[in-house]
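note to self: dont lose this again. the chain is below, predicted strucutre after it. 136 aa total, dont forget to put it in the shared folder this time
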Amino acid sequence: MPSPSETNPMKHPEQERRDLWEATTEQRERIRRGYSSYYQSAFTAFLTLPDTRLESPQLLDEFETRHVGSFATIQEACEEYLRNIGWLSAADKYLAAIPEETPPVFWDYSRITKQLDSVYHVIPADAEIHVFTRRS
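---
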């Protein structure tokens, strides 16, 4: 992003510093509001995402839109993902239709975790897993 003096060469350096201070003050205020309004661990994780724009005036709205959930384990996050794409209900229907003596069916959580990570940002923080949509 070009500095104010690059876009307006006649701007005084003092004014440029003042503009930068006001911009960073607004940014700090948005982050402070985020910490006080939302679950702090999830909001902190959101701020670490490579595609989060800290300078965005819509930072808090972006958090609300992109935060999929916070989970105690990666398995819980995977199960929520499977629920959202309809696989858990499909598996329940399949299992209800097969004989009881059929060997048990297990989910391969390592593969599901890879899929989850390719679709979402998965951030472990403070003994939790925070999941966020990726910016398109």
